[in-house]
Amino acid sequence: MIKKAFDTENLNSSAKERIRNQSVGIRNSSTGVGGNKLAEPLPKFISTNSEKIINGENNAAIVLGRDRIGSRLSGYGGKGHTQCGSIDIVCGRMGANVTQVDEAGNPIYVDPNFKIDAARIYVSQKTDIDASFELVGGSIGSPKARSGIAMKADGIRLIGREGIKLVTRTDKRNSQGGEVLALGGIDLIAGNDDSDLQPIPKGDNLLECLTRIVHHLDSLNGIVDHLLMVQNSFNEKLTSHFHISPFLGAPTSPSESVVVYGAKAMLDHSTQTKASLVSNKANLEMMRNNYLNVAGSGYINSRHNNTN
Question: What is the pTM of this model?
Answer without folding.
Answer: 0.73
